[in-house]
Amino acid sequence: MAKDKSGYIIAAAFIGPGTVTTASLAGANFGFHLVWALLFSIVATMVLQDMAARLGVATGKGLASNLRDMATAPWLQKLFTLLIIAAIGIGNAAYESGNLTGAAIGLNAFADLGTGTWALLLGVLAVMLMWTGRYRLIETVLVVLVFIMALVFVLTLIFTKPDWQAMFLQLLSPQLDVDTITMVLALIGTTIVPYNLFLHASLVAKNYQGAEKAAAIRASRRQSAIAIGVGGLITLVIVATAMMAFFHQAATMDVTNMGNQLSPVLGEWAQWLFAMGLFAAGLTSAITAPLAAAFAVCGALNLKEDLTSWPFRAIWLAIIITGVAIAAAGFKPLAAIVFAQAANGVLLPVIAVFLLIVMNKNKQLGAFRNGTTSNLLGLLVVTVVVCLGLYKLGSLSI
User: Fold this and answer.
1) Who contacts 161 (Cβ-Cβ below 8 Å, separation ≥6)?
2) Which GO cellular component does the record give, naming just one (predicted)?
3) Nearest Cα to 28, choosing from 256, 261, 181, 245?
4) CB count in 10 Å sphere of residue 8
5) What angle do CA 391, 351, 236 make, to 5 degrees?
6) Does the pLDDT of residue 131 top 80, yes or no?
7) 3-state secondary structure 302-340
8) 327-342 confidence digits (pLDDT tens)
């Protein structure tokens, strides 16, 4: 059996232009004072993705299929189907424009063809890769892009000559108040991505037999922990880079042109590296967002979750075309990404609660059903995110 790299695909999925933008703004405006939220998000992602992976391995089905099977009443099945199509299908179509625009901005730093042209070319590239239906090829491309991101963002940080002592001191003085709550929710929302739970469960859903299930789950846990840790490290490096370049500096971070804004601070080569990282981040998410939506919607509609099936291809193709159309029209959604990620953080507990219910109620899980530790960690994640969301709502009325 070929070694599964689904954890790296999840890392590729959550490190998109939204992550680059949100992490850059967090570092520029608040330094390392909000890194506690990022560290919480990384641990929470590992906990929730482990549940999704166990569900996929043990049942041989994705999260959407399991949610549909759990709902015995026809009206509840229809409600789940509508929620999944609206939140994951339509939502990912909206995110796709941001993914393509982010990658296009990165490429435009190398050759000024216009972000619309680059978005169109990237959309064609994504379609060509996805149309092959070759999972291992898609997986390999995404893993390579993750490591490119890791390399270029680390090199960019080196250009800033980081002040490790200042970072450590700020890490020890975390902040949470009316001024920081939106950014805290955005950091959580850009790391713990609800559609990744659907994606991960579907990627590992195979017909394992007997002891193969336990071995597959152990391997998935190790590999996911490493991959998600790498993704978290990339995000942390982006926060550190923006902190050193902009925190308490005269320069201001402009999210619509981050690479060019870094040029006078870090130098021409660092700006190019940052642009390359933004391109890699955008392209990975431009591939994984439609892939996740296709798995989720096919599962919700009880259609075949196969990369070569026509319904599967029709769903991801519609999402890419929508993203290309919006991006090519010149709409630049990067300015709204922080709000979108904050909304994602508020939506997260709803999906997490459903996942917890499935992990305790599904009889197919057997020995892989949630134990006390998993349930407590899952409830802790849900509680923290709900409390932050309520705090955000309360702050709006102040």
Assistant:
1) 244
2) plasma membrane
3) 245
4) 25
5) 65
6) yes
7) CCCCCCCCHHHHHHHHHHHHHHHHHHHCCCCHHHHHHHH
8) 887 665 544 444 555 5
Closest to 201 (Cα-Cα) out of 7, 19, 3, 2: 7
Residue 141, token pair as written in the block: 């491309």
In order of their start, the domains of the chain are 6-396 (1.20.1740.10)
> Average pLDDT of 186-204?
85
| Joined tokens for residue 358 | 């499935």
For residues 64 and 57, give the distance between their C-alpha atoms in angstroms, rounded to a whole number.
14
Give residue-wise pLDDT tens across range 28-80: 889 899 999 999 999 999 999 999 989 888 888 888 888 887 777 788 778 77
Q: Torsions phi, psi of 185, nearest 5?
A: -65, -35
- Return the ∠ at Cα 11 (arms to 165 and 177), rounded to 5°: 50
Q: What is the DSSP string of 115-158?
A: HHHHHHHHHHHHHHHHHT--HHHHHHHHHHHHHHHHHHHHHHHH
